[in-house]
């Protein structure tokens, strides 16, 4: 054991060590899981029992409590990926790669869930599972982008090299998503001016807002928990690959 | 500038002397357009209504088809590595490649589009709007295609994954391209199309260069 004379690094640099990161964040995992579970119980109780029916939609309004948080996450996760992509390209932070990779399938999942719950909600309220409405269409395109990024991750053998390339694509996507959103809105108003979709539906009273907010926080925490766990798993996976490579080298020499 | 012109000339010579590729692409474009009536029936009114969409889908598919040629041969024989260390910035070399790609794969399609407009029963005015919209929109397709090709260049079987990545990005081009052909709001769509092409053409070389230099490290 030698005396540590190296200059002291900031936490930002020290967390770049995957082992440090896992050691620091593992104690967070259980409290996060418990908090998420509690919030889900509270939120679902509010959603099912302590919130009123909508005067137009009846009981189906309760789908909103799972639909809206998923729709919010579908965009929030892309934001996380874009920030991680910046981290990869600008600072070459090793954990930004891991964060980016772990977020992609989760983003695809939440986007798919947003579409699915939206379809279930749309059937009783508008009488159709799918409408080529601006918001739904751009969410579908977002799902395609997520799936493309997941496919891209799977196509590369060398995950370290893949990270910077995928970061470039993620940022290109981030620039493009607002454009896609705008163009799809332009297109859908052109094609179906009288939409069933009322963007400013009934004003929300507090009795609906409370469960919605609780579910919002619960879903966001769910994502953060899953994201953290997926990052740990990815770090372990990389370690296994490295060990296998070392073992193979040892066997051949 | 000299190096840029030389790069452009090299790309054009390679594409034109490679034998038949340009004509094959045009043939593909016309065949895709001509095959749709067989699927939906020879109803003239219907065809006229969906013709803008058919022309754009055919152009989109034809542009995707040529993408694999953009970087892959140069990646495999090491030319890209040389280009990275050349005096000309990699992004400028890629811009030259994208311009050459547009010249050999989009311009022939635009020249061949009259054939499709006749086959798909578009009247005279729509014909000119088709040419104009293809002229303004295909640069954006070429630019997005370059990003997709650059991202997938180091994947051995990247040919399948590039279209999956490019298609969602190209949706605005298709929307405004078709919008520019249909009579209502045509001029607004043309302006959006031009804006998209300018933006994509300006940014794509840098993004593609970044992806390629990361792939080579």
Q: Main attributes?
A:
heterodimer, A: 253 residues, mainly alpha, globular, B: 217 residues, 10 helices, 84% helix
Task: Report a brief summary of the structure.
Chain A has helices spanning 11-14, 18-48, 64-91, 94-126, 134-155, 159-191, 206-252. By secondary structure, chain A is an all-alpha fold.
Topology overview:
The complex is a heterodimer of chains A (253) and B (217).
Chain A: H1 11-14, H2 18-48, H3 64-91, H4 94-126, H5 134-155, H6 159-191, H7 206-252
Chain B: H1 2-17, H2 21-40, H3 44-65, H4 68-76, H5 79-84, H6 90-105, H7 107-119, H8 124-151, H9 161-181, H10 186-216
Rg value of chain B: 18 Å
Number of helices of chain A: 7
Order of helices and strands of chain B: HHHHHHHHHH
- The CA-CA distance between the termini of chain A, in Å, is 30 Å
Structural class of chain B: mainly alpha
Strand elements of chain A, count: 0
Tell me the number of structural domains of chain B.
1
- Number of contiguous helices of chain B: 10
* Proportion of helical residues of chain A: over 70%
- Indicate how many domains the architecture of chain A comprises: 1
Bin the strand percentage of chain A: under 5%
Write down how many β-strands of chain B occur, each being a DSSP E stretch of 2 or more residues.
Answer: 0
Describe what you observe in this structure.
- Helix content of chain A is 78%, strand content 0%.
- Chain A is an all-alpha fold and 253 residues long.
- Chain A has one domain (29-194, 207-244).
- The two termini of chain A are 30 Å apart.
- Chain B is mainly α and 217 residues long.
- Chain B has one domain (2-216).
- Chain B contains 10 helices and no strands.
- Chain B has helices at residues 2-17, 21-40, 44-65, 68-76, 79-84, 90-105, 107-119, 124-151, 161-181, 186-216.
- Chain B starts with a helix and ends with a helix.
């Amino acid at each position: 054991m030698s005396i540590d004379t190296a200059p002291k690094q900031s936490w930002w640099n020290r967390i770049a060590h995957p082992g440090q990161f896992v050691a620091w964040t593992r104690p967070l995992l259980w409290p996060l899981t418990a908090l998420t579970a509690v919030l889900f119980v509270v939120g679902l109780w509010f959603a099912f029992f302590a919130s009123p029916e909508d005067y137009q939609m009846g009981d189906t309004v309760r789908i909103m409590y799972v639909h809206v948080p998923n729709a919010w996450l579908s965009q929030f996760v892309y934001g996380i990926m874009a920030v991680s992509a910046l981290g990869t390209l600008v600072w070459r932070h090793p954990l930004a790669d891991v964060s980016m990779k772990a977020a992609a399938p989760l983003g695809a999942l939440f986007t798919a869930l947003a579409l699915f719950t939206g379809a279930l909600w749309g059937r009783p309220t508008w009488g159709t599972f799918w409408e080529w409405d601006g918001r739904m269409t751009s969410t579908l395109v977002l799902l395609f982008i997520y799936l493309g990024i997941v496919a891209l991750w799977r196509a590369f053998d060398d995950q370290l090299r893949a990270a910077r390339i995928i970061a470039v694509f993620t940022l290109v996507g981030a620039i493009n998503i607002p454009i896609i959103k705008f163009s799809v809105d332009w297109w859908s108003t052109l094609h179906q001016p009288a939409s069933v979709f009322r963007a400013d539906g009934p004003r929300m009273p507090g009795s609906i807002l409370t469960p919605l907010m609780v579910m919002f926080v619960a879903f966001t925490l769910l994502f953060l928990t899953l994201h953290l766990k997926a990052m740990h798993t990815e770090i372990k996976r990389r370690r296994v690959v490295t060990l296998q490579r070392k073992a193979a080298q040892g066997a051949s020499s | 500038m000299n190096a840029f012109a030389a790069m452009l000339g090299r790309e054009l010579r390679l594409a034109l002397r490679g034998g038949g590729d340009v004509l094959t692409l045009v043939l593909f474009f016309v065949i895709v357009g001509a095959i749709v009536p067989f699927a939906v029936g020879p109803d003239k009114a219907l065809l006229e209504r969906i013709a803008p969409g058919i022309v754009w889908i055919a152009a989109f598919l034809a542009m995707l088809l040529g993408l694999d040629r953009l970087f892959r041969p140069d990646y495999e024989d090491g030319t890209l590595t040389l280009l990275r260390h050349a005096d000309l910035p990699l992004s400028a070399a890629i811009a030259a490649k994208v311009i050459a790609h547009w010249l050999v794969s989009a311009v022939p399609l635009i020249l061949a589009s009259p054939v499709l407009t006749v086959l798909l029963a578009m009247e005279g005015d729509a014909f000119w709007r088709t040419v104009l919209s293809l002229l303004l929109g295909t640069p954006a397709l070429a630019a997005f295609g370059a990003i997709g090709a650059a991202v997938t260049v180091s994947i051995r079987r990247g040919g399948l994954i590039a279209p999956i990545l490019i298609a969602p990005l190209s949706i605005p081009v298709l929307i405004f391209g078709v919008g520019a052909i249909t009579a209502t709001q045509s001029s607004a769509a043309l302006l959006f199309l031009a804006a998209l092409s300018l933006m994509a053409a300006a940014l794509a070389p840098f993004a593609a260069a970044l992806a390629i230099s990361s792939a080579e490290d």
